[in-house]
Amino acid sequence: MTPSFLGDDVAVPRGEAVVSLIPVPYDATSSWVKGADRGPGALLEASEYVELYDIETESEPWRRGLATLPPVEVDGPPEELAGAVRELVAGELEAGRTPVLLGGEHSVTIGAVEAAADRFPDLGVLQIDAHADTRESYDGSTHNHACVMARARERCPVVQVGIRSVDPSEVEGLDGERVFWAHDIVGSDDGWMDDVAELLAPRTYVTVDLDAFDPSVLPATGTPEPGGLDWYEVNGLLRRVARSTDVVAFDVVELAPAPGQHASAFTAAKLTHRFLAEIFAGRD
Ligand SMILES: [Mn+2]
Which domains are assigned to the chain? Predict the structure, then answer.
């Protein structure tokens, strides 16, 4: 039985929820360290220990109505996963809920972005990630985790933040005006966050690949990269995003739980809670 986000005591039935948390324990295309399929379970388990009061927004997000849905179980290729996720997310958006996908590897994003772009013509995607993920195809699939943003930018404008790892084949296709390189922003003043906010579309799908964080903050991820963002940088960005655009859905992906690394699962759970708090505050 999958635990509910923040614990069963504060969960509401799906029909009463404004947010649906969707565990997607999928890990078929990871390049290096496997284990992202155990990410959603570890995040949900850790979330039971996140305090229900959010200090920065002076609010309790659970009071808005949070439901945790049964996991999306797909054993097939990422194309099959995208179809299953697209259908589920489309239904949640139709019902007026904000879907929050808990990965799983990054390919879980593809179907969710498709569903959101189908519904909202004024959608854009904000990616917070170490990797550009704009390969046209990788390892024989156009739906591999390394191709997520190539698929997203076919549907809508994208903004990429925290990037510090690209394949030579990706360089030419990146839009320098819309990529915020880690080496330019990490440790600098917060002006770049306003620049990101200005580029966002009226509605936004946010994909948070946890490897955007520096590995000193969150080491338990499949493909860690040095030189990443810290806790307050990511939180500051999410706050501005929630204040400047309508976040219609988001995901938190690439948690690969490792022995002794429960701080990573907790950080992922707390980030999910914090972003929900900022989104609700932005809607008030
Ligand atoms: Mn990544």
Answer: 8-283 (3.40.800.10)
